Amino acid sequence: MFVLLVLLSASCGGGSNSSNPPPEPVQYVYQTPSAIGDGWQVGSLSEVGINQAMVETTINRILQNQIKYRYIDALLIARNGKLVFEKRFRTQFDFTDNWAGNRDVNLHVLNSVTKSYASTLVGIAIDKGYLPSVDLNVHDYYWDKQPIANWTAEKASITLDNWLTMQSGYLWDEWTIPYLDARNVHEQMINSPDPTKFLLDRPMVSVPGTTFAYSTGVSYMLGDIVRRASGQSIAAFMEQNLFQPLQIQTYDAWMTEGQIHMGAALYLSIRDMAKLGQLFLDDGVWNGQQIVSSAWVAKATEQRVTEPNFGYGYQWWMTTFTANGRAYQSYYADGFGGQHIFVLPELNAVIAFNGSAYTDEQREQRSVRQILEQDLIPAMLAAP
After folding, report:
1. What is the DSSP letter of 279?
2. Partners of residue 228 on adjacent β-strands
3. pLDDT over threshold 90, residue 2
4. pLDDT tens, residue by residue, 197-226
5. Domains of the chain (ranges, CATH numbers)
6. What integer pLDDT is reported at residue 345 of this predicted model?
7. What pLDDT digit, counting tens, does each position of 235-254 carry?
8. CB 338 within 8 A of CB 354
9. Average pLDDT, stretch 286-306?
10. Is 64 left (phi over 0), alpha (psi -120 to 50) or beta?
11. What are the backbone dihedrals phi and psi of residue 89, each rounded to the nearest 5 degrees, phi first?
């Protein structure tokens, strides 16, 4: 662990007695989040115009383990700059904690939500002059890995922008084979003798900047290029320039090549995870301090890739949610298992989830889109 400076079900023993019906389940009653000195201003649902009864109904559906509301480990809502709802459902560790040896149940693996942190570190490195721009040629930072296999004119032209938008041109498919399968190309990379060279040596299949190919390996390299440019470890750079200003005191992570894997490795509390969403909603400012430039926030959340079912910027996704007959634009961070930071600028809101749906069967039993479109966004539109 790095430090800077479920619901328990009750069951009756013995056989059942049909003459004594089971007790009514305890109904959730809303509580305002605690002020714990972590930088969040706290408030109530009603004072920011969110219908409390509707949110309570959502939480009861989660607690009752209803279909589409399963495998949710935590939920947080912030609106108008205030943390107004926080509920953690997870009470015990799971297999993902073993990856980092995490022993704090409040910390949750972020998986690919980590990518949005990697993008932010790149933006800070550019703001501070460690990196010149997104137009730099990435291979200028990897002379120690020469000769690079499958060298072509296209590979020589790969820029940082191409890495940020997942349009590197490499032969890379990590979606066909499940992530927990050793045959997955990302698993092959992190288990190789030299993961960095594994990525750089990949064959090219398209001109950089033309084809989207999701790559956790490329996101790992975003952290690595910041490390090389700044002369600091990823942990030191991130703590000094992002976590300390955001008042994030405790986190965990797993390592590749002795450094934090910025494609998937971070573990944070949901309160700390959601701070990134609030930082971006407020144009790079947290509690009056400009942490990353507003210009970078605008670049990172601009849709640069358009696919049939999603848009993509600099390690942020784009989508539209429809509630009460109206569409609301959102950019968001998304992680394997159900880790999400949704930013909804039109509603001045951030909604964060942790989850544990790692198989297809589990994912079918949870719908974050349904919860947003039928529950939480309508609660923001309804009279208190």
Report:
1. H
2. none
3. no
4. 999 999 999 999 999 999 999 999 999 999
5. 43-91 (no CATH), 106-346 (3.40.710.10)
6. 98
7. 999 999 999 999 999 999 99
8. yes
9. 97
10. alpha
11. -100, -25
